[in-house]
Every structure is written in C-alpha cells, then in structure tokens.
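Hey, can you fold this one?
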Amino acid sequence: MNFRKGKGREDPEINLIPFIDVLLVILIFLMVTTTYSKFTELQITLPTADANKALEKPGEINVTVDAKGNYTVNNVAVSFRDVAGLADSLREAALEANKGQPPAQTPVVVVNADQFAMHQMVINVMEAARLAGYEKLTFAAQAGGKK
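Sure. Predicted structure:
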C-alpha cells in the first residue's frame, strides 16, 4: 500500500550543525576553566642565604670503608670485630680530637665508602655511630664523577 507513487524513502541524515555547536561550547568551557602553568626545565634561580658562618664547627669523625672490608677512623686503621668495637673506636676518636675532653657538641660522622664496598659494611658504621650516641651522620661523595 504505497500511496506515494514514484517517491522513494528519504535517507535519514544526521545534522552536524547542532553537534558542532555543542562541541564548541564544551571547548570554550574547558578553555575558560583550565588553569595553565608554565613548566621550565633547568632554568631555575636558587634562593640565596645571608646566614653568618657558624662560630663553632662541630667535630668530624671520618670513617673510611674500602672494598676489601677494612675500616679506618680518622686515618687510623681499625680491626673490625663487631659493631660495638667499632662504636668504641668512634668514641676514642672523638676523645682524641678533643684532647681527652668529652666533645662539647655531638661530632658529625662522615662515611667515606668505596663504591664497591658491601652495603653491610656501611650499615655497620651507621649502627656503630648510633651505639656511640652520634646522631649526625653524612656520606661523602666524589664531585664530577663520570658514569
């Protein structure tokens, strides 16, 4: 029962104009609500400090660990028996640096470890510093090393 002779069905057509309008409104909304921040790499200005130098420099205890497991405390070779013995060596080095008097400030333990030294050797030094009561510990590194 086709009452329209000669006319075929019209193909459905998607109207893109309203779709584009909606997308433009969403785009404008996102552009307005987005905050843009500028990231720059390696172009930084570091803050400056106008602090005076410390009048008293805290004592340092230099502990060296080589790849073979040898320890030195302030350039004096120490035989490693256990961590407690190494802690005693740290205390003795602090007393020698202050000419037999107990240090006024807690000395800083500087660990100079060989790059091929085992982790356990460095942990032994850290544990000995803790047992000796030295809370300040730092590690020395070589500047400008090549990889």
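Confidence is low (pLDDT under 50) at residues 40-44. Let me know if you want another pass with a different chain boundary.
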